[in-house]
User: Fold this.
Amino acid sequence: MKIQQEALIEAIRHGIVDGDTTAIGVMDFDGLAATVADLKSAFSPNFYHTFAVKANALRNVLIKLQQLGIGAEVASPGELELAVSAGFSADRVIFDSPAKTKADIRRCLQDGISFNLDNEQELARVDEMIKEYPDTSAVIGFRVNPQIGSGKISSTSTATSTSKFGFALADGDNRARLIQIYADRPWLKSMHTHSGSQGCPLELMAQGISVITELCEEINARIGSQQIERIDIGGGLPVNFTSDEVTPTFSEYAAVLKDTVPVLFTDKYQVKTEFGRAIAAKNGFMITRVEYTKEMGGRFIATTHAGAQVMTRTAFLPESWPVRAEGYKPDGELRTENVVETDVAGPCCFAADLVAKKVMLPKLEPDDYVVVYDTGAYYFSNHFDYNALPRLAVYAAEKGASNSLLTLIRRAETLGEVVNNMS
Ligand SMILES: Cc1ncc(COP(=O)(O)O)c(C=O)c1O
Assistant:
């Protein structure tokens, strides 16, 4: 029996899901531990791995990852608070927001939280502020966009020529200017790129990292010492959403990287990674209940409680982010008969709020459960209202966002708490 069905049956037995249940997100902590073990063993010991908190900011997930000995990459102040509250010490955190306020920068310099600069205006701020913190233990880098092109999903591709992230290396005389920027600032000891994302071939990711590594070598040679000690290669390893198979694996990526940029696998640099999706996606799934079913224009429709509010990407970009769904009877038995073309709908009040469209599924009935696979990253842990996220995250950090194994996210309760907190 699959772990998803096992968890569903357990949840039914313990009354964690019942007729009032809307949607529940479940994280498999054993799976998470196995994935982190795979990650560590795939790369050489000079690699230090962090988890991209944006992928799953639930506090107990972060505590688990912290205990598993990896660091945290955070991209917003709320994520930073969550990581700190989950026990990550400052030296295990890397702050990557492209919109850091002066207060964010001061916090990093003061507390020794490493960070990556996004642009030259931010650099000018740090030039001023670092005078107050000459002995900061924060390792500071510049995020560089190698501008190597897009993967299959343009909205999440970060290394296109016009991507909003980082310093555009191929524009005008930017390469020479960046070399001078490093030469003028002995405190710039790291360089960062995040060139991958879902839909990116491994070779394209490795190519972006190769461009950055060559640049680091050139800068160090020009300076005449190894000023750049750390290369941060980001995350971006794609995930297979079509079956239970883990592909590509961390080992496959490491092999391509080693082939393309062998120096990364020596002791010359400390190499940081920031995987999010590849660590969490396949270790999480959602259970939602079917409230109603009906037929419309020849299509069978099952209305559930998991839609755009917990599956934002799939609802808005269904072709790019298809997910697998399966139906279970109210006692947890897998439905196998009477297959019909089905739309699995969410509860939100717009037509495209669908978890799955035109999928062949055994006919669902009210009070059935639908399990949505591979949703441990960027799904139930990411609230629909992104504006609320930083404050929600701080709030969640104070309250403790989840219990140990089963993370209950009854939608109405969550929204109620957010609303109360914002008022
Ligand atoms: C700087 C940075 N690091 C890491 C990640 C995590 O990416 P993924 O979840 O694809 O591994 C992202 C994703 O947007 C990112 O922007």
About this structure: The chain has two domains: 1-29+282-423, 96-275. The chain is about 35% helix and 20% strand. Confidence is low (pLDDT under 50) at residues 384-423.
